[in-house]
Amino acid sequence: MGTTWGTIGGVFGVSLGVTVLVVVMFSLGVAAWARAGGGAPRHGAPRGRWDTVAAAAAVVCFAACLAIAAYGIDLIISG
Fold first, then answer.
1. Long-range contacts of range 53-57, CB-CB < 8 Å, 24 or more positions apart?
2. Considering the entire predicted model, what is its pTM?
């Protein structure tokens, strides 16, 4: 029984790619959330269109991170 180095390299590559993807998505979510004012309107001013778009983008980024993490946990538990 030998070691299949190509398969190990493939697993490493996919793992690295998914890790980078999650970090980038989370960073974009934090940046969008900060641009939206952290979910609270600024000093009683009404929320602008771009604040709403930024908050929605942050929610989408965080949801994508959560979905990827849940899928990984599902792979580990049911695997």
1. 57/28, 57/29, 57/32
2. 0.79
Q: What is the DSSP string of 3-70?
A: --HHHHHHHHHHHHHHHHHHHHHHHHHHHHHHHTTTTS-GGGPPPPHHHHHHHHHHHHHHHHHHHHHH
In tens, the pLDDT along 28-77 reads 999 999 998 875 666 666 668 888 899 999 999 999 999 999 999 999 99
DSSP 8-state class, residue 72: H
The alpha carbon of residue 15 and the mean position of all alpha carbons in its chain are separated, in whole angstroms, by 15
Q: Which residues 6+ apart lie within 8 Å of 55 measured at CB?
A: 32, 33, 36, 39
The count of residues in the chain is 79
